[in-house]
C-alpha cells in the first residue's frame, strides 16, 4: 500500500513538472547582428555555417548576418548601434582610436590579409620584388595609400609612376602584359583564369611581410562593457562555425551564401576554400596552436609599427585600445578539426 501511494505521488509530481515545463516559454535567444564587409562569399563561410548548423542557437544566440557591398557603411552602422558586430580590420579600428571612437577588434578570423598582386605568367616576374620592374600597377586608392607605401618603404624600385587606378575590372591588366593588378587571393585570380584562360602569377603581400589581420569580429567598447557574455558566446560560436565550415559538411552554409548572393557559384566557393587552406589565411601563426580567431599584441603591434613608419598612423596613438585578447586564443573549436 505504501509503495502504491509513493508511486502515485511520484507520478503526480512528474505530471505537474511536465505541465509547468510545457507552460513555460522557451528561453529567449539573444538577438545579435553581424555586418560583413562584402556580398556573401566563402570568405564569410564560418559565420553562415554557424547559422545553418545551429551553432549560434546552441550558444543562445539568434544571429542575423547583414550583407555588405560596394555602398555598405558597416562601421557607421556599428557606431550607431544598428549592428552589434562588424567585419572590421585593424586599420579601421586604429583610425577610430585616433578619432576617439571606441571600436574594438575581439577576434581575427584571418591571420593573413588575402590581398595579392597579380601578374602575367610570362613577363619575367618570378618573385615579389620583380613587380618593381613593371611599368604599371593597377591599385585602388586605399591600396596606393597603404600597402603600396609599405612596398616602397621595404623594397627597392617601386615608384609612384607605376600607379594607375584600379576600376575593379581585370580588362586593363589583361590588355597590358607589362602590368600587375591588385586582387583578393580567393577571387580575382579565379576570375582571370576563367576570362583569359591562363593561370596568373599571384603574390600574397602577407607572405612578403605585410602583416595586418583581416576579417575581424569588431564591436564597440560599450558592447564589451555591457554584454561581455554575449560577445564571448558570439566569438566562440563563430570560431566553431569556421572549423565546421572548413572541415565539416558546409552544404547548408553554401546554400545560405548563394541565397544571399545569387551570383556566387559553386566553383568560386570551392576555389576560395582551397586557397584559404593552401595559404594559411585562417590557420597560420598563433591560430595553429591557440585556435582560429587568435589576436596577439605582438602581431597587432607589428602592423601598427609598419603603418606608423609610413605615416598612416601617429606614433603616439594608443593602438592597444583597438583590440582585446580576452575573448580568443583559448583553443575554442579546435576539437572539431578533422
From TrEMBL:
Signal as a keyword of this entry, yes or no, is yes
Q: Which residues are the signal sequence here?
A: 1-28
What keywords would UniProt list here? Signal
Domain SsuA/THI5-like intervals: 42-243
InterPro entries per the record?
NMT1/THI5, SsuA/THI5
Q: Which Pfam families match?
A: NMT1
GO biological-process terms attached to the record: thiamine biosynthetic process
Task: Extract the coiled-coil ranges from the record.
Answer: none
This chain belongs to the protein called ABC transporter substrate-binding protein
Amino acid at each position: 500500500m505504501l509503495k502504491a501511494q509513493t508511486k502515485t505521488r511520484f507520478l503526480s509530481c512528474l505530471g505537474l513538472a511536465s505541465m509547468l515545463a510545457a507552460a513555460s516559454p522557451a528561453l529567449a535567444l539573444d538577438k545579435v547582428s553581424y555586418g560583413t564587409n562584402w556580398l556573401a562569399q566563402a570568405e564569410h563561410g564560418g559565420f553562415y555555417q554557424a547559422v545553418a548548423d545551429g551553432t549560434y542557437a546552441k550558444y543562445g544566440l539568434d544571429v542575423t548576418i547583414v550583407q555588405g557591398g560596394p555602398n555598405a557603411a558597416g562601421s557607421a552602422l556599428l557606431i550607431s548601434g544598428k549592428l552589434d558586430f562588424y567585419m572590421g580590420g585593424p586599420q579601421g579600428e586604429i583610425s577610430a582610436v585616433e578619432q576617439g571612437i571606441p571600436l574594438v577588434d575581439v577576434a581575427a578570423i584571418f591571420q593573413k590579409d588575402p590581398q595579392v598582386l597579380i601578374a602575367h605568367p610570362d613577363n619575367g616576374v618570378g618573385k615579389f620584388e620583380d613587380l618593381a620592374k613593371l611599368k604599371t600597377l593597377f591599385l585602388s586608392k586605399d591600396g596606393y595609400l597603404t600597402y603600396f607605401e609599405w612596398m616602397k618603404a621595404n623594397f627597392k624600385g617601386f615608384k609612384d609612376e607605376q600607379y594607375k587606378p584600379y576600376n575593379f575590372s581585370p580588362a586593363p591588366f589583361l590588355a597590358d602584359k607589362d602590368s600587375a593588378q591588385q586582387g583578393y587571393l580567393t577571387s580575382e585570380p579565379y576570375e582571370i583564369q576563367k576570362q583569359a584562360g591562363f593561370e596568373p602569377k599571384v603574390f600574397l603581400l602577407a607572405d612578403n611581410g605585410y602583416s595586418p589581420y583581416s576579417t575581424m569580429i569588431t564591436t564597440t567598447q560599450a558592447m564589451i562593457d555591457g554584454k561581455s557574455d554575449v560577445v564571448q558566446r558570439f566569438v566562440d560560436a563563430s570560431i566553431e562555425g569556421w572549423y565546421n565550415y572548413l572541415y565539416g559538411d558546409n552544404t547548408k552554409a553554401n546554400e545560405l551564401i548563394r541565397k544571399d548572393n545569387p551570383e556566387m557559384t559553386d566553383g568560386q566557393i570551392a576555389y576560395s576554400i582551397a586557397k584559404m587552406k593552401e595559404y594559411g589565411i585562417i590557420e597560420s601563426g598563433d591560430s595553429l596552436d591557440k585556435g582560429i580567431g587568435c589576436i596577439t599584441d605582438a602581431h597587432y603591434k607589428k602592423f601598427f609599427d609598419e603603418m606608423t613608419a609610413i605615416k598612416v598612423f601617429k606614433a603616439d596613438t594608443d593602438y592597444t585600445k583597438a583590440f582585446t585578447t580576452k575573448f580568443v586564443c583559448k583553443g575554442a573549436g579546435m576539437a572539431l578539426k578533422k
